[in-house]
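Ticket #4471: structure output looks truncated?

Reporter: J.K.
Steps to reproduce: submitted the chain below (181 residues) through the standard prediction queue, then opened the result file.
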Amino acid sequence: MGGRSVNGQRVSARPDHREAAAEPAVPAGHAATGPADDVLRAELPADLTSARQARAAVRQALAAWGMNDPSGDAELLASELVANASEHGGGPISLALRRQAAQDGQPGIACEVTDTSPDLPRQHQAGPEEERGRGMAIVTALATDAGTRPAAPGKTTWFTLALTHHPARHAEAEPQAEAGA
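Returned output as attached by the reporter:
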């Protein structure tokens, strides 16, 4: 089976066909874009390096698929889910990224993070002085869709994200017309 290494972790752009049931789910209104090369998997440790490794895996997948994420939202959301799994779920952590398209053809990704804890994540209102507690609110706010489902041996937390330019956050400077032109 082919595979590459991301920060010392084995990742594969090809799913293990024996694990067809473990393929990332494609939510309603979206479609997988094609062959097995549309999936990247990584097994991550449940430690402080896992979020960094998830960001690297997202960058690798997007580059391999020729996709662009100018906002950085895909990396942010994947690292939030992996950090939560590391802190609250234990390991090992499975990361699966799938290239997909919405029914209107808009490109995007689905990201799934599976950990060993059956406890579902809870969103709570973090106070202004709290250092933690905003991760799931960030995922909910930025993702196209997100959710959690039971999965052996614990749960899978997932999101989908359309990869479009966010003009409000990343407005490109337009050339100004010279006076008298």
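Triage note (M.O.): checked the attachment and the full token line is present. Residues 1-35, 165-181 have pLDDT under 50 and may be disordered.
Status: closed, working as intended.
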